[in-house]
């Protein structure tokens, strides 16, 4: 059997100190560890469908509580970049049938206060303008999932807990040279820079319109739609958040995920 040799330090003998790790090495080590942690975080977030990152997102621009119907309507109108616009078709083969189109809209310039009035450009080359020229009644649909809010929170866009509004009214053309025309055009150019090219294109003759609202229906929870009066709609301020909007997240008895803004005290019913 081989006995390992042991070296003993003699009395009074000094041992050479271990050279300290340089500052640069500590910095490199810190960067490497940080990169590993960030990579792990990104992978985890992708696997969890983005729920991890949402914990750190600022919810100051989140939707209002589902019980504040007028505020939700104003919120969706102000957030909208486009709408699904329905009209009555004038095409011979489907005359009188409902027709729908995607129309870019703005209720104010980006970053400015909500007005609640939807402005949009139309051209007679498009069937929506042709329909509205014959009968200017229309309905627009707006959904909370336009920016994938519902999808990111695990809610199907068809669920009542994914807010939507149906705004019906009439399309009115705004005369060029008026203060409202200048305001609506600036709002559209701010949110849709391409609109400046639309009106400059020869032969297209785009003109500015606004939606004069007749009825607002809000579906934002189980139990059917709620109808908002114009007085309540115009009085609502979507930029102000109530305390109910910060309530903690939970699930209802059916197992569907409910965003934090929803209260679980209200009973759930079958989908309308």
TrEMBL record:
tRNA-binding found in the keyword field: no
Residues annotated as region Disordered? 241-272
> Mind listing the UniProt keywords for this protein, alphabetically?
Membrane, Transmembrane, Transmembrane helix
Q: Is Membrane found in the keyword set?
A: yes
Q: Which Gene3D superfamilies match?
A: Electron Transport, Fmn-binding Protein, Chain A
What are the annotated GO cellular component locations? Answer: cytoplasm; extracellular space
Q: Where are the transmembrane segments?
A: 27-47
Residue ranges annotated for the CREG-like beta-barrel domain, each copy included: 64-234
Residue ranges with Polar residues bias:
252-272
> What protein name does the entry list?
CREG-like beta-barrel domain-containing protein
Q: Which organism is it from?
A: Anopheles merus
């Amino acid at each position: 059997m081989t006995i390992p040799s042991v070296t003993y330090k003699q009395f009074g003998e000094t041992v050479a100190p271990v050279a300290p790790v340089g500052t640069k090495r500590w910095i490199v080590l810190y960067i490497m560890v940080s990169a590993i942690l960030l990579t792990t975080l990104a992978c985890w977030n992708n696997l969890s469908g983005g729920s991890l990152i949402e914990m750190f997102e600022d919810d100051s621009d989140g939707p209002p509580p589902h019980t504040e119907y007028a505020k939700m309507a104003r919120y969706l109108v102000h957030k909208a970049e486009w709408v699904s616009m329905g009209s009555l078709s004038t095409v011979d083969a489907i005359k009188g049938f409902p027709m729908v189109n995607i129309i870019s809209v703005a209720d104010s310039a980006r970053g400015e206060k909500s007005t609640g009035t939807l402005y949009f450009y139309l051209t007679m080359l498009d069937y929506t303008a042709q329909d509205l020229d014959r009968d200017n009644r229309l309905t627009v649909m707006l959904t909370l999932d336009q920016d994938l809010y519902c999808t990111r929170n695990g809610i199907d866009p068809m669920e009542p807990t994914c807010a939507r509004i149906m705004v019906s009214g009439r399309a009115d053309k705004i005369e060029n040279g008026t203060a409202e025309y200048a305001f609506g055009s600036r709002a559209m150019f701010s949110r849709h820079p391409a609109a400046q090219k639309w009106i400059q294109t020869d032969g297209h003759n785009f003109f500015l319109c606004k939606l004069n609202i007749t009825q607002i229906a809000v579906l934002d929870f189980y139990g059917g739609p709620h109808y908002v009066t114009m007085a309540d709609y115009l009085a609502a301020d979507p930029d102000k958040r109530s305390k109910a909007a910060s309530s903690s997240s939970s699930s209802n008895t059916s197992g569907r995920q409910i965003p934090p803004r929803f209260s679980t005290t209200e009973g759930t019913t079958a989908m309308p």
